Amino acid sequence: MKEVGRVAFREEGNKWNAYYAMPHTMEGAMYLGSLSMDLARNPAIKESFMGLMRYVVGTLLEHVVGEKPTWKEPVDAPEHEKKK
Q1: How far is residue 29 CA from its own chain's centroid?
Q2: Angle at 8 between CA 41 and CA 77, to 5 degrees
Q3: pTM to 2 decimals?
Q4: Which of 9, 26, 28, 84 is most buried by a 10 A CB count?
Q5: pLDDT at residue 80, rounded to an integer
Q6: Rounded CA gap, 7 and 21, in Å?
Q7: Cα-trace Rg, the chain
Q8: What residues form DSSP beta bridges with 19?
Q9: Nearest-CA neighbor of 5 among 68, 63, 57, 80?
Q10: CA quadruple 75, 2, 46, 82: dihedral, nearest 10
Q11: What is the block-wise mean pLDDT of the chain (84 residues), using blocks of 10 residues?
């Protein structure tokens, strides 16, 4: 299956935000949702939120493309995507 996007997570202010983005860029990324950083500091809550966001995108892609995506292991954001 071809890479058609990714779920990207970013700490922005006091929020842990989730986006659907194209590979290698955040330009035009679609905001999915957020979690308070106070809650995101709890590993179980953070992982559950990340799983939910992947499930949402996976369900959408399955509906549009016809098959469920496979997820790669999470990686840190590339330097060019990090806020300075």
Answers
A1: 10
A2: 80
A3: 0.82
A4: 9
A5: 67
A6: 6
A7: 13
A8: 8, 31
A9: 57
A10: 50
A11: 83 95 91 97 96 93 84 72 60
Token pair recorded at residue 82? 């990090």
Angle at 21 between CA 50 and CA 14, to 5 degrees: 50
Amino acid type, 7: V
What is the amino acid identity at position 6? R
Q: Which residue has the tokens 């292991």?
A: 73
Alpha helices in the chain (DSSP H): 37-40, 43-65
Distance CA 66, CA 34 (A): 27
Give me 51's structure tokens. 């799983």
Give the pLDDT score at 84: 47
Close Cβ partners of 12 (under 8 Å, ≥ 6 residues apart): 83
